[in-house]
Amino acid sequence: MEGEINNFMMVCLSVFTSLCYCYGIGKIVSKGTLRLLTIVPVVCLFLALPLNLHSMHLVGISSFFIAWLANFKLLLFAFGKGPLSDPSISLPQFVAIASLPIKIIQNPPPKTSKKGHKSLWNYATKFLLLVLCVRVYDYSEYIHPKVILLLYCLHIYFALEIMFAMFAALARTLLKSELEPQFDEPYLSSSLQDFWGRRWNMMVSRILRPTVYEPTLGFSNQLLGRKWAPLPAIFSTFMVSALMHELVFYYLGRMRPTWYISWFFLLHGLCLMVEIAVKKVVTDSYRLPPIISGSLTLTFVMSTGFWLFLPELIRFNAFAKTLDEYAAVGAFVKDACGIRV
User: How many structural domains is the chain composed of?
Assistant: First the structure.
């Protein structure tokens, strides 16, 4: 445990030093190819850093925050785009925005919309539900396997939202800035478009939009016209998301990919294309009521997750390792505090 914490501290130091270097590069090197060349070594380093860790939680954090989000933000920064290219940004803001799954609301109005922002009671309830899921695993031999898979889905959702909220709270306190929300109750989604674009892990959609969706949309406009151009742009975005998720899963399991994760995202990309195409030709009066479309959306997301997504986590014992880490952290805290049971 102590060795892994030391490794994580070294990773954090490497990230901080590298981002300070990138911040300085932004002041002296003009945007474009030359800035990109000076940043490429940092991108390569960020791709390698998760390999220095072994804990499921720390590998997950470093691979998603650094190897994916930070690298995409730096690539945008190389060409003068994205959240890091604001000329008024300070070094602490640069480091926080690059390394954490946050986005500062620029010039928020006096009454900022609370959409996606939740109360402490909301997070407390989800934390208790997460604890309950973990405790229920002790009785898994008495529970139907499909129910266990449902618990895994809830475990992933609660853990991700709580973890992101903790980092957002830290960033909000340090930066004194209003941040955009990261999740917005995805179980209330009324369609796949609503789920992926507005409710589930909105940091991913925010970083993929300027890096993949918008460039592909501009190219598609010339070939297909404005009406149908979003379709290939959506599929391209899901392709990139699939590849990045495969990379994250490799970091987590260190096993040869089976490409089930890619099929999961490609399937959802195809289905979202169909959904949007249907919306373009069908009037509102012929569309399903939200309660029905929402039920179908959640059923589709969970069934495809059971089929293609969760088996990859189960393949390298992700949930068992996670529970072991919870126990290890508890034992470490007890030992550090001198608690004897």
Answer: 3
Same domain, 39 and 68: yes
Asked if the structure places residue 105 within a domain, the reply is: no
- Residue 67 inside a domain? The answer is yes
Residues 237 and 338 in one domain: yes
pLDDT at site 110? 55
Same domain, 191 and 334: yes
Q: Are residues 118 and 252 in the same domain?
A: no
pLDDT tens sequence across 100-154: 998 877 665 555 445 556 778 889 999 999 999 989 988 888 999 889 999 999 9
Entry field: residues in the chain: 341
Enclosing domain of residue 142: 112-180
- Is residue 169 within 8 Å of residue 102, measured between CB atoms? no
Write the single-letter amino acid at 124.
A
Predicted TM-score (pTM) of the model is: 0.90
Query: Is there a contact between 12 and 33 (Cβ–Cβ < 8 Å)?
Result: no
Alpha carbons within 13 A on the beta-carbon side of 272: 25
Distance CA 87, CA 328 (A): 44
First to last CA, the chain: 20
